[in-house]
């Protein structure tokens, strides 16, 4: 504790000296003390203000550890990332989750994704529970301007959208990627429509360029006050699309499908990173900005999936096995660069200590001087000590990652399936296969038989973890009648299916897949609700391919004929307040049934406060879910 206090003391001393030119140095008594959590700045002796550091987290999507030139990739060009690498503290044993949503949940909350409701990428399990406190909520409370630009993937409806979760300024696309079902219909990364602070707006240009332009506006507008910017790119996630000038240089060497575009997307974002950092310098705020670069999982396309001709370039994995959506090392070990000249976090130094996305929020709380809510159990630990020295204590002695539900979600979440326990150089995969990275970095030799004592130790760590998280793996609900989003726009992407994914991209919607499932909803206020059932979003302006429509909610079932040429089916019902499920059916003239992939629910009139409401509304629907066997404890 004493060591930590000394360390913080030195960081804040350095922070104070950054502003020495603009303000007198901090008093001796203020050194070593965290600035007040509810204030914006520390008061110096002469009455000047020493600003808290700004924070920018740049997170890219599906860029693996080997998808950077500075990590040894012989083909890819990333000059701006390489420059940041030479200037940063780099964590070389930093781990995330094997894919998008859970990494973002852990980053935002410092808690294991399984606890937060957001531990898969769709199917009603990619939504952050509103009871979670996010990084943005902490920064906002500490007086920061908070901005989120790009991909959220932690819930598209109130109360889980970025604007409901602490971000004051939001420019974003919905769902987990551009072209996914809940995204604005027709978006394809060029001249798209995104939502700015609750209103859709048409943009001109390429998606990544737009996110960075918006980032430059945000830092410019907030240069006088501490800001927290979460710049979360959709690139280089599929679909792999980029202006030709960026992919053309890779066409000859990178011959697998989408590879040249994938690399082009990275070089484009790299170019934009350089311009953003230049802007910070021009604004004279680069020194007092903690700039964090990380990615959210292993590479999705940085290595060839098929056999190429002898001698052909096959991509670069930095010696690791696996990629995105696997629990091999290449699925979850990713770059983490931290650069903050004002805090003396610079100089291109590596840190080998084991660390994880869970640890970033506690670390930023230390560096920026705000307290975390101690009543919420945390899974992350501050790595401020490790920032200072490669020999310092690591924030954790083990880390556990898991694809809950297994690859492609063909099974229920069960212990050990698609899991990895990390401790020292040991990796226990699926609870039974043991690898030692020290002499087997490619995880080719399962040596579980030779080290039963290590297997037992790592299984004991896992068992304790599973006991802790499994009872918390319950879904978040989407609010109906929340004034922050009325009507609520629900999408099939969030149907809570027992396994597999519901229709989740434009292509699957166009196929009118014959499947339906329940949305977990929370009726905020008892009252009269209007339900509008569609197969395509309103902006697509297409008629229903159906003759009959049906819905069920809170034990109420309604059915109606669909008129030929109708673009939607509308129901109006009285609902009690409380949690329940909503399921829809649209049946065509062949008797085939699918759901209303897009359903809007609008509170028309709230019931008078004295109106009686059921104390356990919709309980029958919850019991239905138990039949799926989803809640395995
Ligand atoms: Ca991802």
Describe the structure in your own words:
The protein folds into four domains: 2-48; 54-391, Alkaline Phosphatase, subunit A, CATH 3.40.720; 402-472, Arylsulfatase, C-terminal domain; 478-627, Jelly Rolls (Sandwich), CATH 2.60.120. The chain has 14 helices and 28 strands. A hairpin with a 2-residue loop joins β16 (419-423) and β17 (426-429). α6 (207-221) runs parallel beside α8 (259-282). It binds calcium ion. Residues 61-62, 99-100, 237, 296-297 line the site of calcium ion.
Write the layout of secondary structure elements.
Elements: H1 2-18, E1 41-43, E2 49-51, E3 54-60, H2 79-87, E4 89-91, E5 94-95, H3 100-109, H4 113-116, H5 135-141, E6 145-151, E7 169-173, E8 193-196, E9 199-202, H6 207-221, E10 227-232, H7 244-247, H8 259-282, E11 289-295, H9 329-332, E12 336-339, E13 349-351, E14 355-356, H10 360-368, H11 384-388, E15 398-402, E16 419-423, E17 426-429, E18 433-436, H12 452-469, E19 478-480, E20 488-491, H13 506-510, E21 519-523, E22 527-534, E23 548-553, E24 556-561, E25 569-575, E26 578-587, E27 593-594, E28 598-606, H14 619-627
Helix pairs in contact: 6-8
The structure holds calcium ion (CA).
Calcium ion binds next to loops.
Number of DSSP helical runs: 14
According to CATH, the fold-level topology of the largest domain is Alkaline Phosphatase, subunit A
Mean pLDDT across all amino acids? 90
User: Which of globular, elongated, flat, extended, rod-shaped describes the shape?
Assistant: globular
> What summary fits the major beta sheet?
10 strands, mixed
CATH homolog superfamily of the largest domain? Alkaline Phosphatase, subunit A
CATH architecture of the largest domain: 3-Layer(aba) Sandwich
Strand content: 15-25%
Tell me the radius of gyration.
Answer: 25 Å
How far is the N terminus from the C terminus? Answer: 37 Å
Work out the number of β strands.
28
Helix content: 10-25%
What structural class do you assign from the helix and strand content?
alpha+beta
**What is the CATH class designation of the largest domain?**
Alpha Beta
């Amino acid at each position: 504790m004493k060591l930590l206090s000394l360390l913080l003391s030195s960081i804040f001393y350095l922070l104070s000296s950054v502003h020495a030119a603009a303000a007198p140095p901090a008093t001796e008594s203020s050194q070593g003390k965290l600035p007040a959590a509810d204030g914006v700045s520390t008061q110096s002796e002469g009455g000047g203000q020493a600003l808290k550091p700004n924070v920018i987290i740049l997170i890219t999507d599906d860029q693996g550890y080997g998808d950077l030139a500075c990590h040894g990739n012989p083909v890819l060009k990333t000059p701006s990332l390489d420059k940041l690498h030479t200037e940063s503290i780099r964590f070389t044993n930093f781990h995330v989750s094997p894919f998008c949503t859970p990494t973002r949940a852990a980053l935002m909350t410092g808690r294991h994704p399984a606890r937060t409701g957001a531990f898969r990428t769709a199917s009603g399990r990619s939504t952050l529970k509103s009871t979670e406190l996010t990084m943005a909520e902490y920064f906002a409370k500490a007086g920061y301007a908070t901005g989120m630009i790009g991909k959220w993937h932690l819930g598209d409806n109130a109360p889980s959208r970025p604007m409901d979760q602490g971000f004051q300024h939001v420019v974003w696309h919905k769902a987990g990627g551009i072209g996914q079902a809940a995204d604005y219909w027709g978006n394809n990364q060029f001249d798209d429509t995104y939502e700015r602070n609750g209103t859709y707006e048409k943009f001109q240009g390429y998606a990544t360029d737009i996110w960075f332009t918006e980032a430059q506006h945000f830092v410019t507008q907030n240069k006088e006050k501490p800001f927290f910017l979460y710049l979360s790119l959709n690139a280089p996630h599929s679909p792999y699309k980029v202006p030709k000038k960026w992919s053309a240089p890779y066409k000859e060497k990178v011959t697998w499908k989408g590879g040249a575009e994938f690399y082009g997307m990275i070089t484009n974002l790299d170019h934009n990173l350089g311009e953003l950092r230049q802007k910070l310098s021009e604004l004279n705020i680069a020194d007092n900005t903690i700039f964090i670069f990380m990615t959210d999982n292993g590479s999705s396309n940085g290595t060839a999936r098929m056999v190429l001709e002898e001698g052909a370039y096959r991509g670069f994995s930095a010696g690791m096995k696996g990629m995105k959506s696997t629990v091999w090392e290449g699925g979850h070990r990713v770059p983490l660069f931290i650069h903050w000249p004002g805090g003396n976090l610079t100089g291109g130094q590596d840190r080998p200590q084991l660390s994880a996305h869970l640890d970033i929020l506690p670390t930023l709380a230390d560096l920026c001087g705000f307290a975390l809510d101690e009543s919420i159990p945390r899974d992350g630990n501050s790595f401020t000590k490790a920032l200072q020295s490669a020999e310092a204590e690591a924030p954790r002695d083990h880390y556990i990652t898991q694809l809950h539900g297994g690859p492609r979600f063909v099974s229920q979440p069960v212990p050990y399936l698609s899991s990895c326990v990390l401790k020292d150089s040991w990796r226990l995969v699926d609870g039974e296969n043991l690898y030692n990275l020290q002499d087997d970095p490619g995880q080719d030799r399962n040596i579980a038989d030779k080290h039963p004592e290590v297997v037992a130790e790592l299984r004991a760590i896992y068992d304790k973890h599973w006991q802790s998280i499994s009872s918390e793996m319950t879904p978040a609900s989407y609010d109906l009648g929340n004034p922050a989003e009325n009507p609520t726009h629900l999408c099939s992407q969030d149907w809570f299916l027992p396994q597999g994914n519901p229709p989740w991209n434009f292509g699957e919607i166009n196929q009118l897949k014959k499947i339906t499932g329940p949305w977990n909803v929370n009726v905020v206020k008892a009252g009269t609700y209007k339900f509008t059932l569609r197969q395509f979003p309103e902006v697509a302006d297409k008629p229903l391919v159906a003759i009959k429509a049906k819905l069920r909610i809170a034990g109420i079932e309604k059915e109606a004929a669909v008129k030929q040429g109708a673009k939607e089916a509308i129901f109006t019902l009285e609902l009690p307040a409380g949690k329940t499920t909503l399921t829809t059916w649209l049946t065509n003239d062949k008797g085939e049934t699918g759901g209303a992939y897009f359903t809007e629910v609008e509170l028309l009139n709230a019931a008078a406060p004295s109106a009686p409401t059921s104390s356990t509304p919709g309980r029958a629907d919850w019991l239905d879910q138990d039949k799926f066997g989803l809640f395995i404890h």
